[in-house]
Amino acid sequence: MRRFWVTVTLFLVAITFGCGGSNNGNSNLLYVADSGASDISIYKIGSDGSLSSSASSTLSTGNAPIAFVIRPDKKFLYLLRSSNNDVQIYSVNSSTGALTLSSTVATNTTSPKAIAINSSGTFLYVASSGSTNISAYTVDSSSGGLTAISGSPYALPAGASSLAIAPSGKYLYAAVTDRGAIYGFQIDSSSGGLTRIVGSPFSAGIGPTALAIAPNESFVYVTDNLSTRIYALSIQSGSGILFSVVGSPFTVGSNPSSIAIDSSSAHLYVTNQNSSNVGAYSIDSQGALSQLSGSPYSVGSTPVFVALSPSGNALYVANHSSNTINQFQVNSSTGQSTAFSTATISTSSGPIWMSTTK
């Protein structure tokens, strides 16, 4: 079966952004990129976390989208198109959340796969599977436009599949599938420039793909998509150096592809794309994982992405081959999940990436 590697941005595989501004009308929305249909669909999220049965709006993106990030103030969405080697910049309607294309920026890379934006929305980074670098940009606070940072691009081996930025904005990590490693960088808080972390790269299996950083900034988790493992690494405060967690790697399902971590850094969820399920785990104080009772949960065919609702009371799983989203209610105390009465929502063709706003 073909494997669909997905990328990670910020500190959750499925990002739940903070408001960063006024509580406007485009709150509690789920954006879904469909690679087969080449579009982005928007779903409303109810107070219980359940999704509206159909998209409130769908926008054609032209060619297959691969990943996107939303600026924390919810004013702009940045869509990465791998086949076009570019980033599309969309303005976000403050009332409805609808998207309008404002500009397109060439990444000067080959087959870009990963995109990340820091928590203040000031710096954006792109890495690719075909080029040996990371492109870095400053983000204009008014227009959302991108300007290359002096010194960009920064060296990185080819084969990058995902990026993740620590909540503090101090560190950026890149999973490089072809090297079986995580590369770490310190981020200059003024310029956004990158400097390699001492000891980088850090070993992470044979096919690391999706990265997630716990919100408490204590641990990094990465899926090994060519196996049945998740690698867990602790972050040394002040340096960003990574150390293997005792017991790592942890066994999950077949070909894990995406991770989400709740806001309390207590529970982790992972899609197992060739097992057609999603696993749920508790995270202990040392970063070790323990599978929750009742887990894994069955989902559709080829689950490639997992996201949590803004309040953490629901879990969404994008199934690439069955063109559906499974939705679960989440007990925030235990982390355990139960399917909603409407367990499955139909999407366009080939959902591959999701993100929520609140």
Helices, strands, pairings?
Layout: E1 29-34, E2 39-44, E3 57-60, E4 65-70, E5 76-81, E6 86-92, E7 99-106, E8 112-117, E9 123-128, E10 133-139, E11 146-148, E12 154-155, E13 160-165, E14 171-176, E15 181-187, E16 194-196, E17 202-203, E18 208-213, E19 219-224, E20 229-235, E21 242-244, E22 250-251, E23 256-261, E24 267-272, E25 277-283, E26 289-291, E27 297-298, E28 303-308, E29 314-319, E30 324-330, E31 337-346, E32 351-357
Describe this protein's structure.
- The protein is an all-beta fold.
- It has a domain at 29-254 and 349-357: 7 Propeller (Methylamine Dehydrogenase, Chain H).
- It is 0% helix and 49% strand.
- The protein contains no helices and 32 strands.
- Strands 8, 9, 10, 11 and 12 form a 5-stranded antiparallel beta sheet that branches. Strands 13, 14, 15, 16 and 17 form a 5-stranded antiparallel beta sheet that branches.
- A hairpin with a 6-residue loop joins strand 20 and strand 21.
- The chain is globular.
- Mean pLDDT is 91; it is low at 6-24.
